[in-house]
Amino acid sequence: MSLKKATRMEQRCVIKFCYRMNYSLKETTKLMSEAYGDDRISYKTINAWYKMFKSGRETCNNLEKSGAPKTATTAEVIEAISETISQDPVLGPQDLALMLSISRSSAHRILQVDLAMMFVCSHWVPSVLSDEIRSLRLNLSQRLREEFESLGEPFLSKVLVAGETWMYCWEERQASVPSTPVRPRSRTLKYKNIAKVPVIVFFDADSVIDVRHCEVNMVLTSTDYESMLNDLTVNYSHKKWRYFYDISRCFAETTFNNNFSDLNLIRLPCPPNSHDLTPFGFFLRPKIKNFMLKANFDTKDSAVTGLTNALQQVPNAEFKMAMFEWKNRWERCIASKGDYLID
């Protein structure tokens, strides 16, 4: 215990002693001034403790305070965050804190310390890449370089890119904030609804091709992808895509990979945790995130429609620049032997 704390505890005991000896508050303050001089606690503090002892308090120690637990780092919370991030790696500490009723700092600490994750291209990923994924990243980058050297710049226009994300529906509630001259109106707080919509965005070097979604709280499957791609290859046959590049959760599904021959597409599956190697991760996902922060939708249809309209306003030139940036990134990946690309 520090000297300052010891002195404070000692003076509380003196106040209790003076009260038991029937000294008045004024007499108690005078005695303590003579005994402690400049180190005496304030009159306000003396008055507060004197009244507490007068009302029946016995202990001089601080009472245990109720409220949030000292730590939210329990096995259950860590497991819950790990599972949530695996489904939606773009959620921030504030989102996780609201979902799990913990503090933002606890959520951030669990992500970085307990789960050893880092934020790359708006996604939480493991801080240390496994040798397997590092090898997959390197092999993919080398394959992309070979395809580009074979076809030249037209290769970039022959790639159909896809990326998954979640759209959240919000409900507005008025906060009970009193009206004051500084704050004349009550604030409107946003609360994230439990409903979330899985969305997949298809685009190429020219523009956004389509935005599709599934039922609320459902996860996209290989069957969903096949159905969507069948429609796109028929409706946009003039595009003459030759490759399909994605980072879907269906990465390991053999049936999904084998069925691409029927679509006349060569699949270029991006390895897990490699959002820095896909145009969706480093180019389109940040735009979607900014859109969701500013927008407010209460139904899945309005959310998807709003997102589609926002993405269609992105200039075509930016998509072409993103594809050239993609080329630069696989060159950097080869140079770093498969490591993360930190901007």
UniProtKB/TrEMBL annotation:
Highest taxon above the source species: Eukaryota
Alphabetized InterPro entries for the sequence: Mos1_HTH, RNaseH_sf, Transposase-MT_Hybrid
GO MF term set: nucleic acid binding
Residues covered by the Mos1 transposase HTH domain: 12-56
PANTHER family assigned to the protein according to its UniProt record, in alphabetical order: MARINER MOS1 TRANSPOSASE-LIKE PROTEIN
Name used for this protein in its record: Mos1 transposase HTH domain-containing protein
Source organism per UniProt: Laodelphax striatellus
